[in-house]
Task: structure prediction
Amino acid sequence: MSIDSCYENVIAKLTNQGKIKDISQKLLSLTTNGERVLYVYELLGTLKALPKVTAVHKTENVSLYYRNQGNQVFKNKDDYRALQYYNLALLHAPLKSECYCLALSNRSAVFLSLKKYKECLQDIQEIQTMEYPEKLKDKMLKRQTTCEEYFAKENEFIHESNDETTQKILKLEGPRDPRFPCASTKLEVVFSEEMGRHVIAREDIKVGEILVQEDPYFTLLLKSQFLFSCSYCLSRDLNLLPCTKCCLSLYCSEECRKKAWVEYHAVECYLMATLVQMDFTKLELLALRTVIKARNDHSDWEGLLDTIKEAERNMNNEYRGHVKVDGEWVYDSQYYPSIHTLASNIEKRSISDIFQKAVTAAVFLHFLITNTDFLKPDNKSQEEAVLNCVAGTLLLHIMTSPTNMHGLSTNIQTWDGNYIEEMSIASAPYAYHSLLNHSCAPNVVRFSKLGTGQMTLYALRPIKKGMQLFDNYGSHHALQDRQSRQEALRFQYKFTCLCEACVNNWPTYLQMTRCRNVPANILRTKDKVLDADAIDELQKGDQGTALKLYKPLCELIEALEPYAPCGELADCQESVKQCLTILRGLVPYGYSKIVQWDAVPKVK
Result:
């Protein structure tokens, strides 16, 4: 059963009983999120509509099944699919068992085939720390010798992006705002009735400047990336270690495995297979993890309850989302109040939308009550407060997630060698980035660094002192007409966009004409900088070209800004984005070969 079918089942039962109107009126009468979820939880219990958690344990049969699948594709030289199957075999293998060693052994063979000699040696060394089968010893020694020979001869250049030019493009330098430590002092957070909290420029900002560099509250890896990345830090390290208990989480190190366990995974671990199998959305899973981490950030429930009370006292003043650190107010994603106080838009939501989200929250609550000790209070007198807190914050964050969580992505190589397709990797809560309002013609752009959760904000257009910074929520004038954008933004974000592109009905890229009245020297420079060869090299992901073109392109955008919207300006903006994508990390074609697998295996 999926969470969607669970909800549809509830609606069908209530419709048959003629209770939809009564339920809606009751929900409207309730004033807190906790009351809403607990009411729906009781209702689902009455309807016998609460799903059960399916336990998935590590077993040799499932590990063997995936190892055999890996062997089949490895014979066909399909290394990246083989890598995924061997990681599945590793996840399902009882720890330190023979099938665990065999999964590692086979994975090391893939690394050798991929010429990943360091990774191959690391897996072999890991096997040698265990009591591995005698039949493996000769094979491992031979593979180790081969690897060491290649490793010694190898003289490949590994680009670490630490040269001065690259660092200037990738790292926020200069003074940061002590109150908003992820942001440059060139920015200021202000409030107005019309725009709510938003960010403006304290001084003139040039195209290409780094304005914000923010680490998230946590990251949530997407299922498509489970077998390629660290579930905690998103590292693309290939020598991934399995969770010691569940069959879904891989980690780049023992340190990440321990941190994940302490922060949230100890609670999620037993539930993971069911959460994935029921197709909860990333936004719903983000909400669940937020609640778990919020509690685990505190030594006891009393601490969290006090934090929430203080955060809600500050909801309508300038310290909304802030905490006191060493006596000073700070707004930072590492502290829960910055996430707790993000906008939920509940006043703009229909009762059916609230009910659907309350059903999801009630199912999460049921899983936590029946399968974990997460709700165990500090003392008996706290039981009701803890129950209300968990129920309420689950619904709160299910409502805040759609408008405040951000995706992390990069470009992946296509079959023809170009890097023009986007690949989603993870999602995460970023408190500062959530302060940015939307424009269909944004003046800033976000990029995440591959293998990390770090999000960086760049100026995409010149921003004058006092001007507001505008991000893009997914509806861009170059790609969609005004009506399509307005409908999409009203549906997900509950507002009518009044940006310059909407007010002036700017054309899509395909409708744009060449810039008029632009000095000939600017157009000549644009044609010289962004010629066919340069565009081709950028599409191929060439780092040298990206480094060479970045500054000239930023200067061209400055020069072309007065003529917006026009095709030449759009070309330069998209090329700058491509430069940043290249410099922040690309993914080779093999990673597009995603294998299909079930969180609850059909094989027993």
Observations:
- The first strand starts at residue 187 and ends at 192.
- DSSP finds 22 helices and 14 strands in the chain.
- The mean pLDDT is 95.
